[in-house]
Each structure stands twice: as C-alpha cells, then as structure tokens.
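Bit of a strange request maybe. I'm writing a small parser for structure token strings and I need a real example to test against, not something I typed by hand. Could someone generate the tokens for this chain?
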Amino acid sequence: MTAPRLRARLKGWGGVGAMATACALALVFALLLTCTGSLNSDAATGRPVSHSEEARAHTQTRGEEECTAPEKQTLSPSGADGPTIEEIKNRQGEKRKLIVGVDQNSYRWGYRDPNSGESGELEGFDIDLVHRIAEDILGDRDAVQFKAIPTDQRIPAIEAGRVDMVVRTMTINCDRLQDVAFSAPYFKTGQQVLAPKSSPVEGYDETLADREVCTATGSTAHSTLEADQKTGRLPESTDIRTTVPNQLDCLVRLQLGEVDAVVTDGALAASQAAQDPTIELKGEAFTAEYYGVAMKKDADDLVRRVNQILVDFREDTSDGWESSYADWLSATLGDDPSASKPPAPEYLRKS
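Reply from user aminoacidic:
Good idea to test on real output. This should exercise your parser:
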C-alpha cells in the first residue's frame, strides 16, 4: 500500500408623460421576453429552436430538476438529413468519411486485438456502433476515420471540430451537456471500485480510508469522488489526487503498486479485471449512469439521426445491440444483457 497523503439585484424608475411610460413598458416587455426564453418564442414566431436553446429553456422551466436525468436531455429521433450531415456527405474522395473519436485501449469496447494480425483493426462494442452509424449516414460501414483520443480530450476534440462525434464509453452528465450534445443512452453502467484481490478494500466505503485512488482526468469518476469527499460519503483521508489522461493508465499504476484502487465505470472495470487475474471488482456499482454518443452542440440533425439509428440498433434482433453485447461483453458482464441495456429513451421534445 502506498503511503497516505493528506488533502489536507433592477432599479425601478419613474417618469411623467406618455413617452416615458411607453418606453418603460417597452423595456419591461423586452425583459419579460428575455426571461421567458425560447420555448415561448418558437411558438410565437415559428422559427426553429436549436438544441442548445431548447436545453436552456428546459433548464429555466425545470430549475435544477433536469440534472436528475441528464440522459433525457436529447432530441427526438429523425432520419432526415440536415446541414451537419450534408457537410459530412459532401466531403470529397477519401475524406468522405465519418470522423469519430474512439478509444483503442479499452478491452472489448474499443481496442486493437493483438491477435488480429498486421491489420490491427479496431474492435469492440463501441466500434460496432460506429460502423452502424457510418452505414446509415454514408451507406458504407467502413467509411470511418477513427481518431484515438484520450479521456481528457473527448470534449475538446468535439468543440474544435476535429471529430464529428465521440463514441468512447462517455457518460452523459449535466456538466458535459453545457459543452456538447448527447444522443440517447446506448448503455447503462455505474461507477465501481477495482483493486487487487488481496487488498483489504471492500468497495466504495470506509475501507478506502488512507488509500490512494486513481481516476482519469475529466472523468465522471473523478468528479464523483470530489463531490462525495465534500459530503462525507467518501472518507476524507482517501487520496484522490492521482489522475491520468487515459483511464487505462490507472490500471497500469495499480499493477505497479503505485495506487491502491481505481474507480471507473463498472463496464470498463470488468473488462480490465478480465485482463488481469490478480485484480477484481470490489463491491457493487454505487451510481447509475449511461453512455451516449457525444456531438457538437447545435448539430441537431446529427443528434436526431444518431437517435434514430440507436432506435433501430436496439430493435434489430439479428445484428443489433444484443448481438454486439453477446460478441463483446457477455464474457465480462454476463450472458444476461438486461442490466446493461438502457430503458426506452425519453426525449426533450416529441416532435
């Protein structure tokens, strides 16, 4: 065990005369329009409402409630093309591909099988989904340019336009919804503890006191640990300062004895445990979270299209969600996929 480290206000105005009154009323009316937001304005004007405007209006209407279900903050499905999809389709020659940020080191999710020969093609559950999206949008499942990106570069890559989307075991949460748009959920998971089998750590509890825990920079795991340490759910003496760019780097540090435990998504943790017989999952998942496809904000047509693809992916009994689960994840998560398959999605708007 490594040595513990301490963490140690509108002023009112009056006026006389009809002109002053009219001006005051006009200003008040304008302020009211600003406060009521875009949900009212689109009904009045008929103009389209973007995803970000819709999400903001939804926030204004529901206050903090929306953060209880970030997985529902997405647009209803549609198979129609739009400006974002047209831009993808209009790429010329070899560049006419879907550009997707993925992982290449997450066993059974997005990884290069060392036994696949010189090709070293990317494989896994996330990769299957990417091929499905490319086939629907471009008519060719292989019309994909994969870009391997570390955990902490997923959002920057989308915002900078280096990728069209990220399909990389990315949890939908409210903080990220401020920066990117998400599809409906395609997988259900939760945070879990990974530690050596011989470790006295028993799960996400007091046994993590005076232990050093590794998480990936910018991950849901790290933000959860920070929040839980403030509320007392996680022992104050737990050292959570160790963060790494890629989640898999935590596994390496664990194997080297540099940290005592790793906290990450249970679905990923199970795959890591399958790679090393000396480590195991400790305790049950202590959160309920969902993976989604992340895209640039205001790319509404692409979000709707991906949501339609996900509907079809779920319903396809021959080569869909359950088939991909059986191929890649049943060995680590069990033969019954029901715990991992998300419920029927809900959307911000039904039209």
